[in-house]
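TL;DR need structure tokens for one chain.
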Amino acid sequence: MDVTTEYQDKARDIAAMFRDSFTVSEGPEAGQQIAALVAEMLGTVSAQDMHVFSAMEGAEVRASILFTRMRYPEDTRTVFILSPVAVAPDQQGKGVGQRLITHGLAALRESGVDIVLTYGDIAFYSKVGFTQITTEDAQPPLPLQHPHGWLGQALADTGFAPLQGPSECVPPLGDPDYW
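>> reply
TL;DR here they are.
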């Protein structure tokens, strides 16, 4: 599989892969909701505030991850959040998602990102270097429904010191249902 960061001409295929993946794991309503979120993110978030990585098999999107900027106005570090993540149902359990995330984290490290956050399954994300953090370590933009799923990773050599002050996410992630 090849990894691409091009997404403008693949936005529909990426959103469809998210829909299919989340439909299988969470049901049709969740599949539609996440597909709509991804389509909105791909269509509205500026390139400077988003990094998209997709695993391609020929012309087919097999996995995709989106990193979007988190702003901590009282902190000087560059922070992104990994969300959402999807792997095509027939590719799950093969390490495709982990390899794609590892690739994305390396690219963000090279571009000067200091901290990456995510919100999800500790068992999965710990395999790619995320550790559980608290809301005191990094204040989320909205209250967390499952605080134990708040995870972080330092990409800079300075390590993960608590982020200062409140945070802001990109507008498409501003729905409390995602937190």
